[in-house]
Amino acid sequence: GADKVLAVVRASQQAEVPVTGVWLQDWMGKRHTALGDRLWWNWILDDHATLGSYAAWNTMREALGPVRLLVYANSFLADPEAAAPPGTETVTAARWRRSLFAEAVAEGYTIAASTASGVTDTAGAALA
């Protein structure tokens, strides 16, 4: 989250290590599944005021000054509203303003199997 990013950058700068950019893999948040921690493949900034890892995104960005933020996205989508096994989901769909999974399904952007509306990977809780 934002606090850790700022702490690592400050520690590096205090040690006189030049920092020009920070790559944030978890900018969209993390979720806990039966297989361990996974990223929330919803590709929306995890900036929910109370639940988000980056609730203070703008403050962090300003505090970093000239240090650039690098993020990425891929083609996997997680359904924020999918039911997870009891005790495995630590965040809720309430944190998201929208669901890219639902939008992709509604617009027909997913790969269709002959017996289903989409191909799902239950191990990663992603739509591939």
TrEMBL record:
It comes from the Eukaryota. InterPro entries: Sulfoquinovosidase_GH31 (IPR052990). This is Uncharacterized protein.
